[in-house]
Amino acid sequence: MKLFALFFILISSFVFSQTSEEELIKSTVNSLFNGMKTSDSSKITKAFSKTAILQTITKNGEVKNENIKDFAVSISKAEKGSLDERITFSNILIDGNLASVWTPYEFYYQGKFSHCGVNSFQLVKVNDEWKIQYIIDTRRIDNCKK
Question: Which pTM does this prediction carry?
Fold first, then answer.
């Protein structure tokens, strides 16, 4: 009976630990999109690591790089509330200080549907804080839920 109790405690603590890490990861990702929605460049840059990479895949399959600082500045010029990227967390994988996150999304500009796609994030845990190290996304206007 004691062995069963010990096993149950170990499994419970692992599950709780994993869940709380998932919540911290979600918080980092959500802070990026909250920064976009509120046009807050400091909130956007704070979500990324110092060496982060931001990319998008165009319709023809070309990969475009975007500078994080330039991205944050361009978002800060948007009217507050005009950029609304609605994400769903469909998969979070964690191994130590590395996390992989998959988030399908729908993007709205000034309340009107613009496009949809998927974000693929790689996060790293630095000084007990999750940061976005890499993000690449797809963008399309067809096959969207709306």
Answer: 0.84
